[in-house]
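Summary for the steering committee. The consortium agreed at its last meeting that each partner would contribute one worked example illustrating the joint modelling workflow. Our contribution is presented below. We chose a case with several input lines so that the handling of multiple components could be demonstrated. No manual editing was applied between input and output; the record is shown as generated.
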Amino acid sequence: MFQELSDKLDLVVKKIRGQGKITDKNIASSLKEVRRVLLEADVNYKVAKSFIASVQERAMGQEVLRSVTPGQQIVKIIYDELTHIMGDKDVPLNLTGSLPHIIMLNGLQGSGKTTLAGKLALNLKKSGKKPLLVGADVQRPAAIKQLEIVGENVGVPVIGDASKSPVKNCSDAITYAKKNGFDVVILDTAGRLHIDKTLMEELKSIKDVTKPGEILFVADGMTGQDAVNTAKEFLNWIDFDGIVLTKMDGDARGGAALSIRMVTGKPIKFISIGEKFDALELFHPDRMASRILGMGDVVTLVEKAQQTVDQEKAAKLEHKLRRQEFTLEDFYDQLQQIKKMGPLDQLLGMMPGMNKNMMKGISVDDRAFVKVEAIINSMTPEERRRPQVINGSRRKRISLGSGTSVQDVNQLLKQFQMMQKMMKNINKFNLKGMFR
Amino acid sequence: MNSVFGKLKAGLSRTRSGVVDKMDDVVKAHNEVNEDLWDELEEILISGDIGVNVSMKLIEDVRAKIEDLGIRKTSNILNFMKSAVKRVVMNGETDRDIFDIPESVQLPYVIIVVGVNGTGKTTSIGKLAHQFRLQNKKVLLAAADTFRAAASEQLEIWAKRSNVDIITNMPGTDPASVAYDSLQAAISRQVDVLIIDTAGRLHTKANLMEELKKVDRVLKKLRPDVPHETLLVMDATTGQNGLSQARQFMQAVGVTGIVLTKLDGTAKGGVVLSIRDELDVPVRLIGVGEQMEDLQPFHPEEFVEAMFQ
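What follows is the complete predicted structure of the assembly.
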């Protein structure tokens, strides 16, 4: 996510940091580079222009000149402005007012509305709501069928009838929701071009009839300069309340993301970051800015850990580590917990200082876990607790049992040994809180 | 022919009003050539998704010509720009009409369709099938998108619309096996054209790209010369990420051509220039509307003409 933007900004930022003395001239040339980086990342050129202008204004001002570390100060300004562009504050989903809350999704074809509907439904269900999915896309072949399957996957009921008009589908669904005690209704509308008057009128009448408390504009994170125009048109027609950016798990440069918020003045509420239904993240402008600038996003990482890590187990582990009793069994448990937190490359991306160049050469493949798991699974409890008993013939047996090679087994044992050594060193420092 | 050109023109009207008309305004606003003019022109090009590199190249190209000739007036700049754009778009392989199946090909003619999520692969296949049918070709579709919910149902509806056969399998089946089965079926049913739909995948997901490679490998087991065409379907609203998509897919499965969809209405298609400039892969087809016949062969010359008309 934002990888390229992030890499390139990183280079410019490093340059700025390294400069002991800041002059108008070197600020101007650095900012020119920043502008180019932004444009290459599909940031709308008007947005890029105003971004540069405000950074420049502040950079030339007193706050930098008086600062002991002017380079740092400029980086801080870039961070602030990035955060500002993306909306400064988090804006959560609006779930107030009378029941059922109605969320209406809209956007261009192929922006990912139906998949998002499923993700939202799952997210709401997890937070204790009782959502209903409504298929209002009677345009695209098998769209309602797709939503039905999505609903089945996330365990949320779906209604929708391709023979009814979209408006009828939506209003019927709301009546149904009221009768059956659903508290959130998610309307999945057909994708449409903003220049298609008839379809935009239709969207408007869906809005008028259903009066949604939350209208979300779904935008493909890979969209180029046109993203802004599309968003503006949709805004004119139906005045949406928030934005969701999809397909942000690729190498989308995300410039559109930066621009849409700025141009429409509407907050980005979620970003969608994977094919699985739980791959939906709340959007935090400040955290995103620090991710873009390669400063990592430790807050999200910690939150993810808190959601998934079993506190009791963590405490036990800490104790074990202190007493240097960390075994392969514990290692296995750790793997399971990390796996629950999400794909490894995404996790690594949130670590401060981790960028593409650092990750080059390290293939981040979740399937590597599978191998390690298989190997540990093929060991006896005794072997897991005391790996030193694993001799040649045991290695052979383990490799056969796990479908790996003896080399793989050796590698794992070696890595584990190294880890144990590392743990000893860490133990000398304060360990408390590391796994909490 | 005239109507095709008309459609293309209409489809590209946004590109025109976006880029060319704006350039026209800027040129008219300046009497004399100066720094400001170049900056403004560059901004317009970039705002049309043409990409920073190509935009700068175009500007330099035009600028060099103008300065060589010692022109001070701005009136002719758009003509120079048009030739510069032409040079970029016409760069590389000349485009072959996909509906002209070479005589030398041993049938079935196999087309595999790939791309990121939501670019319009299945819809494009529906339209492709329709057009091959119009030429009295016997067409078979293969639903090898076994991942996305209801993907095969969607393709089935298209198959019914154009009255062609389709091979499907249960969701979650290995796409390579669907592809293999379909090729086998295509051979035994003596089909002329086999079009294989694959699941949308982000080009950065290594395992999904591996899956695609497997489809390719498995097909080659049966017939070493297939697929004859590997089409990358790209959404014309895609920004500079399009280049990255094309590169990754080319590397994985040797893309032979690009299908640029959704060029009507919103899209500017400026990414065509970036692709033609930086990659050696032709644009085969463009989608300029919702109708069955609105998927058309791409003619670079016409494209540029329509852009500047």
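The radius of gyration of chain A is 26 Å. Residues 106 and 217 of chain A are 5 Å apart (CA to CA).
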